[in-house]
Design a protein that fits this description.
The model has no long low-confidence stretch (mean pLDDT 92). The strands form two sheets. The protein has a seven-stranded antiparallel beta sheet with strand order 1-9-6-11-4-3-2. A four-stranded antiparallel beta sheet has the order 5-10-7-8, with no helix packed on it. A hairpin with an 8-residue loop joins strand 2 and strand 3. 22% of the residues lie in helices and 34% in strands. It contains three helices and eleven strands, in the order E-H-E-E-H-E-E-E-E-E-E-E-E-H.
């Protein structure tokens, strides 16, 4: 299993509005494992001017008994009609991805392609996105560096059963 879809009431509208209002602040994704930056894969990290990003991260951590220092919230944009090549996330064991755009393209792992709105992704496995024929793919992402995919899924399951 590389993706675990679940329901959570993120404030999608406020997240989307905040992302779009800061669109000119995004930077091309840089990875020291690559020679170039990915100019179609844009990132905006928490820079203390993103209260919705921070509040939604803190609320999620509170609701599931996670520590804020275990997760980093970010916004990403995969530009329309482009491809994010298959990759393994740098120093990230897993993430919670919450799609903010309508009709987003699927994420593809070696095991297949998946559509979701909110899911835990095992970002230690090869994955990518073919956004050809789609609008910008807007993403709110919570990146976990020290928690495994399996452990995070168990955490979500145990809290949702109580």
């Amino acid at each position: 299993l590389m993706l675990f879809e679940f329901q959570y009431d993120f404030d999608t509208e406020s997240l989307s509005n905040e992302l779009l209002s800061h669109r000119d602040e995004f930077e091309s994704y840089q990875d020291d494992r690559l020679n170039d930056s990915l100019n179609n894969w844009l990132i905006l990290r928490d820079n203390n001017s993103l209260p919705v990003l921070r509040e939604e991260c803190e609320r999620f951590c509170w609701d599931f008994g996670l520590f804020k220092n275990q997760v980093k919230p970010r916004y990403y944009v995969l530009e329309r009609d482009t491809i994010l090549p298959k990759h393994i996330d740098h120093n990230t064991r897993c993430s919670i991805n919450h799609i903010l755009s309508d009709n987003p393209s699927q994420v593809t792992f070696d095991s297949g392609s998946y559509s979701y709105q909110t899911a835990v992704l095992d970002t230690s496995k090869l994955h990518g996105v073919d956004n050809t024929g789609c609008d910008d793919r807007l993403l709110f992402k919570l990146s976990f560096f020290d928690i495994s995919f399996e452990r995070l899924v168990e955490c979500l399951k145990s809290y949702s059963n109580t």
